[in-house]
């Protein structure tokens, strides 16, 4: 049975990727510290990814943070049951992370509402 992230349609994933791109553009012009949204960025990145999962290293490249910081952010989200941390035979930067089923459902609902209210434009 496919996960909610796998079932999310292309417009939802594209919207997540576009929001992340807008945020990156915002960070180009403003101090990133003023917009401490790294955990949201992690969730957007996971949702925008077609497989719905990243390694800590890949997430760290997405967030422009050191892997140790990314792992700390992932642990916070895992503590809120928003992402699942996997196991790795390699180093801790290879640990896979994915949206929890609950988080994926909430993201799908959120983007559905963004689209239906016309905020996607």
Total beta strand runs: 3
CA(first)-CA(last) distance: 32 Å
Biggest sheet details: 3 strands, antiparallel
**How helical, in percent, are the residues?**
55-70%
Low-confidence stretches: none
Strand content: 5-15%
Overall geometry: globular
What is the tally of helical segments? 6
Computed over alpha carbons, the radius of gyration is 14 Å
Order of SSEs:
HHHEHHEEH
Strand order of the largest sheet: 1-3-2
Overall residue-averaged pLDDT value: 82
Derived structural class: mainly alpha
Structural summary, described in words:
The chain is mainly alpha-helical and 121 residues long. Helices cover 60% and strands 8% of the residues. The chain contains 6 helices and 3 strands; from the N terminus they run αααβααββα. A 3-stranded antiparallel β-sheet has the order 1-3-2. Helix 4 packs across helix 5.
Strand and helix map with partners:
Elements: H1 4-7, H2 10-29, H3 38-48, E1 53-55, H4 56-63, H5 67-79, E2 83-85, E3 96-99, H6 101-116
Antiparallel strand pairs: 1-3, 2-3
Short summary:
This protein is mainly α and 121 residues long. The chain is 60% helix and 8% strand.
Keyphrases for this structure?
single chain, 121 residues, mainly alpha, three-stranded antiparallel beta sheet, 6 helices, globular
